[in-house]
Amino acid sequence: MAKGLEAEKIVKQCRAEYEAGLMFRKDRELQWAQNEDFYLNRVKRNLKSKFNVPVPIVPGFVDTWKAKMSKHPALTFEQSESADYIAAKKATALLNRIKVREDYDWDMLDSDGNQVAALYGKVTYAYMAHSKPKYQSVLDLIDPYDVVDDPMGGADTEKYKFRAQDNVFKSKSELVDGADEGMYDPAQVSKLINAVKADRLVDKDTIFQSKQNRFMALGLDGITYNYAGQDMYKLVAQGTMWKGRRYYVVYNYETGVWVRCEYLKDVFKSDLWPWVSWFPIRDPFTPLPKAPVEDIIPIAETIRVLVNQELDNRHKRNYGQRAYDMSMFPNPAELEWRQDGLVAVNLEKVNSRVSQIAQGIYQFETPELQGTINLVSWMDNLLKEKTGVNSEAQGQSDTSKVGIAFLNVQQSAERTKAAMESRTKCWQAIDRRFLWGLVEHMRSPMAVKIIGEIGEQWTELARNEINPEWDIVVSGGEEDMNRDEIKKKALRDTLATLTPPELMVMNPKMTAQIKLEGAEVEEDMIRQVFDLSDETNKEVLSKASQMIQDCLANKPYALYRAATTAFVQKIMDYADENYPTYTPDQLALLKPAEQEKHAAGTEKFMKLMRLAQAHMEFAAQNAARKAVQTNAQRGLPPPEMAPPGLPEEPAMNTPAGTQSLSQGMTNMAPQI
Length: 672
What we know:
Elements: H1 4-39, H2 57-68, E1 74-78, H3 85-99, H4 106-120, E2 123-130, E3 136-142, E4 147-149, E5 162-171, H5 172-180, H6 186-195, E6 199-201, H7 212-217, E7 227-242, E8 245-251, E9 258-263, H8 264-267, E10 275-278, H9 297-318, E11 322-324, H10 347-352, E12 361-363, H11 372-387, H12 402-415, H13 417-441, E13 446-452, E14 455-461, E15 471-475, H14 478-496, H15 500-504, H16 508-518, H17 523-530, H18 538-552, H19 565-578, H20 584-588, H21 592-614, H22 616-634, H23 655-668
Antiparallel strand pairs: 1-15, 2-3, 2-10, 4-5, 5-7, 6-7, 7-8, 8-9, 11-12, 13-14
Helix pairs in contact: 2-4, 5-6, 9-11, 14-16, 18-19, 19-21
């Protein structure tokens, strides 16, 4: 951690960068406010008797944009070498498990990010991992007003000279606890607490009060009513470059007092910024490009004006001005409409002029506006053509023209291809940081569920199995869905054209699998369909896992009479994976502490082997009964079973002993 004068210089630079970033963004915030007004249907006050109603063009565009981007990217880790295949598969399973752990999960963050992208043109996430009190993976969507970036940066945010996150609030207890844990500098925490007056009114706005526009558009007061319930200190978390090295700094902007200032690599071993961003409309030389709604707003405003002019015109026609003969109608107030109203008429004037009552009132006609509906329709079609927000994207396609509708969907997907590419690159960057977070903060193995050769399997992922340099493959979006559908359709059509001789030389299992995949059957269900022995059901494997725990914890347990070969194999696999066996020569190479650990592991290994041995006879009997049932269903004679029991075996916890027990399981399996 930087100390003394050098830390003060770094913080001084951070404050100057922060100020430059805010001033650079100031005028851009005015456009953001206009985007918010159109999205929230906020219009300016107008003259009395003049219409100024909002027309929800921009809200409709944003909702359609979110729907088009609603397919969340599917992220998969791929090994850099074949030895990492299983580990990469387990890491992917752990990622998918963590993503949906909270109610407000990563998919929700992605959906909300799509809305931010449409309105502000830039989406920023912050990823961090923690190990106290236990491993925790944290991903946050950052308010665009809280992101202060290098003005000279472009589309590649990892190359920015600095990145800052404003409005990071910490309570006094959080600061003190952080100092005790070594996260913050104790002396600087005391200095901050003494220099800054804590406030329970949390001002989360910028120095220009730009965030208040959202609240005012919704009729909310975010200035008066912002009570937090506890004393809070406002901080800025910032990454900066100092003498060619990246630093991570946490400080209070108003006073310049810092509480954390250290090499970024000491905070994040990857030396990557914890903030990642994506742009729906990329500009290689601008950190704040335009937002998609900014292409819609001019036409939306024009349509709004046309609609209000039409309403004004209709109002004039319905409630237009009139002229009346004062001598015929002495009291003009009576001419106002009233239910069952009576109007006094001077009959003498009427008779003397030999005129009719109708001639005493003249209606000033307001001409009807022509072409408004046609013009609005033309502009609406222009929007659909130029933005891809057509009836198919809005879910209103004409089902009688399926081919045309599918083509329109394809064209619509092409328009969002660039945005999807930027978005998927962002999620790749997040997953890269996820891998680094596991390497840094996962202290003990974590349970994961993977799809193996026999269906769902529970296993554990250890930190030493993870390689943060694995390839990250991202799929998802309308284009990928269409491509997969085309591929599946081509496979089904090809299978339908095969002749009987061709089918005879093909793998029947693979043919059936292609058909099931084409029917959108899940991978785990497909594996269970092909599992004819039906011994890998969840109850049996769950019982095996529970018995393993009881055995290792020296708890009493009763033998499981419904044990199957998969039950016994589960116990043996657990023993092999967690308690390795060494030859005497290999054992001699281990350090004394490792030899002691191996000795303790050997005892547990033998316990599990004895547990597996105790269930061998049950497994053989159940396998025989299952074989009889299976053959009866197929109309075949009962199979010949290998006699239960094993020949004299080598000693357990030796390679020969393990091989012998495994071979015994193979022998007792029915030959069908």
